[in-house]
UniProtKB/TrEMBL annotation:
Keywords: Dioxygenase, Iron, Metal-binding, Oxidoreductase. Its cofactor is Fe(3+). This is 6-chlorohydroxyquinol-1,2-dioxygenase. GO terms for molecular function: catechol 1,2-dioxygenase activity; ferric iron binding. Residues 145-173 form the Intradiol ring-cleavage dioxygenases domain. InterPro entries: Catechol_dOase_N, Intradiol_dOase_C, Intradiol_dOase_core, Intradiol_RC_Dioxygenase. Residues 1-23 are annotated as: Disordered.
Amino acid sequence: MQGERSVLPVGAAPQADSSTVKDHDGAAFSARLAGLPTGRLGQGLAVLVDALDGLVRELQLTPAEFRQVLDYLTEVGHAADARRQEWVLLADTLGLSMLVEDLNSPRPAGCTPNTVAGPFYRADAPLRDNGGSISLDGKGVPLQVRGRVLSLDGMALPGASVEVWQADGQGKYENQEPDLQPENNLRGRLRTDGQGRFAFRSVMPGGYDLPSDGPVGRLMTRLGLCLARPAHIHFRVSAEGHERLTTHIFDRADPAIGRDAIFGVKPELLADFRAAPLDGGVTGRALDLDLVLCPLRQG
Ligand code: BEZ
Ligand code: FE
């Protein structure tokens, strides 16, 4: 063809091989990789192509539909930047992030399950006094949290680091609205006391919706799926000789408890944020919880 560069030596006949002579099938890509030192990358791509091949065949995807898929993925890419990770949000809402968590951190029964940390975690949260407040603006329904960090055998873990972060009563994290909330509002790091106990004063977190203004939100809305996350508090606990725990504790009474947009709710993570008289004569809420860590395992 004119203008097209030939890759064949002059006079050479094209060499047919198994991936060029017959209709494309799912194994053709794997066949090309056979014998190449592609390692886990090649293994992953072969499985992915095989699954996509099945999808195209099962749905008998038309070229127009295929183009729509590619356009959608392009949109997701354009919506992702350093402040907003639309790809992570897509993986979260498809249930893939929790699947990766579940597969990679199976814990023995009795340990608190691991979940994703989510986009609002900050590694630089300030150390707070055990028993002190993490609410810097005092806005919201007062909440008293008391917890224990335990090992699987029930032993208390003194000196454990407990990082906590949560949304305010309107369902917003401080790093989502830096002009409206004080820096590091509703987050902090505590150390457990000699009996493995920690406590802090806070406010009731509100449930919230994942952003609906990007391609992921639009997709979920178009499908009629819910973007809601039930009210929760995030914890990340580190203690010597134990696997780090990253989890959420959810308000059992939240109306969205059965339809978390990212599939993070597990029965062990439900808790009662019960009405209670608090110090100073105010009525607020109280939450008591145990966070149970898994001892480090070999391998
Ligand atoms: C969160 O709980 O903060 C969260 C987790 C995953 C996606 C969006 C938010
Ligand atoms: Fe959250």
